[in-house]
Every structure is written in structure tokens, then in C-alpha cells.
Amino acid sequence: MKPGIILVFLLLSLIRFSFSQDTIKKVVTPTAQMTDSIAEIDVKPVVIFPPVRHESKRAMIRYDRLVYNVKKVYPFAKMAGMKFAEYKKILDTIPDEKSRKKFLKKAELELETRFGNDVRELTYSQGKILIKLIYRETGNSSYDILKELRGGFRAFVWQTLAVIFGYNLKTSYDPAGEDQAIERIVIMIEAGAI
């Protein structure tokens, strides 16, 4: 019996030593003689979300539909953000009002020919999500963008028309509140997770 107990203690002590780590750290201080360089790579932060738990099958279907809608609309919102920044930069360099109006007409025609049919084919809920995502990308509501680029009267007309059809161009984006699910989906799209 004693040889068995000694063998167990011997094995336990070997296991302890085999898993221990060397705690001595080697510190290298750079000197003028070091000629080697280290590559610097920007790495995007990784966000890991826990799996989405749904209380019912209906909630799961609703979430899947939201994912589909956000994935369909998000490229439009990204493009709107880029175009808004581009147009704002150009408009800041144009001195007179007549040239600004001419440029805006040309830009509106360009956007209409490029995105008009695709935007018209969006569903009601996709349109609402687009309005929120445009706010997310630009930091301004769609109403404020229209007011800045096309004037207050035109923004009022479009807002009135939008309200008739159930939209609100003054809608803001709240990533920590009611738009938390949309924000989660957008972050996952940007990370390439979905």
C-alpha cells in the first residue's frame, strides 16, 4: 500500500511542475544600435455578442426580418453618409447661391438615376430603418439634411408628405435605447459576422 501512495504523491508533484510557468520576464530596452523595425497593423476591435435568445418563434421571425431589412438598407445609409460629407465639402467651396443650386440639381439628378429605383422598391419598415440609419451615419436627421441642402420650405414639404405616408424625417437614432437591436445588427455587419 505504501508504494502506491508514494507513487501517487510522486505523480502529483510531477504534474505540478509540468504545468508551472516561468515567471521571469526578459525586458529588452531599445538602443540606437537596434536596426530592426516592427510592423504596425491596425486591428479592428472585435465585438462578441452572446447569441440572441427569443421568447417565442414569432419574436425569432421578427428579429430575422429585422436582420434582413437592416442588411438591405445599410448600404444605402453608408452611401448617404459618404455623399452628404462629399456634397457638404463641395458646397462649402462654392461662393454664390446660383452655382450652389446648379450643383445641387446636378447632384439630385445623379442620386435619382443611381438609387431612385432601388429606394422606391423598399418596404415601409425598410424606409423607417433607412431614416434611422441615415441619422446614425450623418449625425443629422433626414429633415435637417434636406433643410441644409435644399432649404426649409422643401424640407417642410417632404416632411409633410412623409407624415402622410407614416414616416417622420425628424426621427433620431438611439443605439442604447429603442434602436439597440439595429445597432447590434449594424455592428455585426461591419464586423463581417452576418
Structural commentary:
The protein is an all-alpha fold and 194 residues long. It has a domain of 135 residues. It is built from seven helices and no strands. 13% of the residues are buried.
List keywords for this structure.
194 residues, mainly alpha, elongated
Cα distance spanning the termini: 61 Å
Number of strands: 0
Q: What percentage of the residues does DSSP assign to strands (E)? A: under 5%
The percent of residues in helical segments reads 55-70%
Q: Please outline the major beta sheet.
A: none
Mean pLDDT, all residues: 80
Q: Enumerate the spans where pLDDT stays under 50 for 5 or more consecutive residues.
A: 19-28
- Series of secondary-structure elements, N-terminal to C-terminal: HHHHHHH
Write the layout of secondary structure elements.
Layout: H1 2-19, H2 57-93, H3 97-120, H4 124-138, H5 142-150, H6 152-164, H7 180-191
Helix pairs in contact: 2-4, 2-7, 5-6
Q: Could you write a compact summary of the structure shown?
A:
With 194 residues, the chain is an all-alpha fold. The protein contains seven helices and no strands.
